[in-house]
Amino acid sequence: MSAHGADPAMRNRLANARSPFLLHGATQPVDWWPWSDDAFRHAREQNRPVLLDIGAVWCHWCHVMDRESYEDDETATLINERFIPVKVDRDERPDVDARYQRAVQVLTGQGGWPLTAFLTPEGDVFYGGTYFPPDERHGRPSFRRVLREVARIWSEERDRAVDAARGIQQRLTQHERAEVERGQPRPQLIEETIEELAQSFDFRWGGFGRAPKFPNAGGCDLLLDHAAEHRTVWAGRIVSETLHAMGKGGIWDQLGGGFHRYSTDARWIIPHFEKMAYDNGPLLATIARAHSVTGDPFFAQLAAGIVAHYRDITSELVADGGFPASQDADFSPTDDGDYWTWTEAELREALPDARDFAAASLHFGLDDPAGAMHIDPSRHVLFQAKDAAAVARALELPEPDVEARLARVRATLKAVRDQRPRPYVDTTLYAGWMALVAAGHLAAARFVDVEGAADAALRALERLWNQAFVDGKGLMHRVADADSGYGLEDQAFALLAFLDAAEFTQAPEWLARANTIAAVLLTRFRDDGSGAFRDRPGDASAAVPALERPFLPVSDAPTPSGNGAAALGLLRLAATTGDEAPLAAANAVLGAFAGSAARLLSAAATWMKALSWSVLPVTTVAILDDVETPQDSTLFRAALRSYRPRTLIRWLRGTDTAALPAALRAIVTGARPRAYVCAGQVCAAPVQSAPELEALLRTFRAD
């Protein structure tokens, strides 16, 4: 069944699609084509422009435009008569989305979904935008007016359209050249990025910049590393206040756990309600590391909440090995957050006890107009307006009583909400996003000891390897679908997750798999001209020339950048194995962007984290113990739970120390158990207890 309860009668060429977004399009009267050579060949034969619609199953405004325009017979007739309509799922084809987002941004100054672009039959944009309403409103032309005018220009003033496409392409080329500018990687770039993050920090509400506010796991990671390494209180405070504000805001699902995609306001209260794997995976890892550094129990609650969210919405998938791609914002095209929000009457009905309702009202900010939905102010987003202590004072009740009462309230409201129609959960297994969530779960297991998190992560990564990897080609974009292609992000995110699994388990197969993925990156994705990595293999087929042109992603938008993640993974692999090939490849990636990085700074936070592994000392922790498994070693468990930037952990049961760095190898003795710590070429005296090791990892410096 297609998402949002659409008519199951399939009416066009999308009927055999695997994407839930495209399957919904298959029920529409528009004569959609999937992205394909055939679609553009047909456009050339018919001499018609292409109408490109890029959206996603989780996208609220995509559903709105579907309902208003693409499900309207008159609009569909206009499209079918004058255009070749092509529908693309941005999750399924991130390579297509990336290129056309950039083109429309060059044209209009903004992008997003739905992306509506008009292309020549050769695939070049000559006009576009995002959401177009069915009628003139808010300064936007009606979609039918746009369709008629674009069709007229193509018919009567084609040179104008071709010139526009040529101009857009020239500006794109200039932009790409400016972004890929060679230089010398230098540690000052990291300091400049941290300074930019500090300058943009919202000291009142947390986060960076003004509304709308998006999670920035990469920026928080850089600041957390700075705080842990240099004991800078202000950097740690920025991270802590940001994560607290997000966790107490409406961007956090106060009943079910997990983060929504972004907040429309500065206070993190009113979100766009979709939940994305690419947000929750990296945020889970960041929050878990923040818990290790600060010991803040609130971060432990958030980490456990994200893990619980995945078990809640897809328990069977998690048990079988996998994590869903997304959860929709809405349960129908006419809904706008009704599943997630509450009226006062709904809360009173769910909480008949007067004190429960009073506690909930105070705790969740029912009387704060900032929590009211803009379209329907009677509906409120739940956020933590007052903590248990403040509620206890207001109600003149003992704090323990209020804490117990609020726990009961949350459970009751969650049970009531579970009876509502639930927004669609896309259980498509995209390799890169699965790897991000798995890495987050491994961090939750390491630094917070969240029950079941490690098992869920390792099951997912095993499935990824067994069902998505093809020798010589890499990891399929969609698990068990050889036709889905192979993306840079899929390889890079999996490389990092496999390295996390190797360190967590100390099992050699994970390191071997990481090596295999690294080899794929070097052979299939490297751009010979720049030394960076392309977002798609150079030998992949392309329906239009736009896909043949190299796209070398370095900005984190919205996922961690493919080049940043690849460089980080290769540097970690080289530090673990001592292999020169991944080290050289990673340094080539860093060099490819070092000249432009000063203009990107926090927009390239993942690349900056990779840079830190290249220009700053890496710490190696060697645990020598005679217990049967690493998990039996108290020293190993202490090393795992103690976050320290740029640290590798090796557990050695026997006497073979050949894999250790030379400085560390020189001081190892036969005494067991012992933990050895070297930062760069400087080594500390060995320790033999977990508390000593934890203290050493907090305080030991290379300088």
Order of strands, widest sheet: 1-3-2-4-5
Largest beta-sheet details: 5 strands, mixed
Radius of gyration, Cα only, in angstroms? 26 Å
Secondary-structure content class: alpha+beta
CATH classification, class level of the largest domain: Mainly Alpha
Uncertain segments: 1-7
How far apart are the termini? 61 Å
Output mean pLDDT.
Answer: 95
> What do we call the CATH topology of the largest domain?
Glycosyltransferase
Q: Helix segment count? A: 29
Q: Strand portion, in percent?
A: 5-15%
Brief overview:
With 703 residues, this protein is α+β, with helices and mostly antiparallel strands. Helix content is 51%, strand content 8%.
Describe the structure.
The chain is built from 29 helices and 16 strands. The chain has a five-stranded mixed sheet with strand order 1-3-2-4-5, with helices on both faces. Strands 14-13-15-16 form a four-stranded mixed sheet, with helices on both faces. The longest helix is centred in the N-terminal third of the chain and has 22 residues. The chain starts with 19 loop residues before the first helix and ends with a helix.
Structural key phrases:
alpha+beta, disordered N terminus, Arc Repressor Mutant, subunit A, four-stranded mixed sheet, Glutaredoxin, 4 domains, single chain, five-stranded mixed sheet, 703 residues, Glycosyltransferase
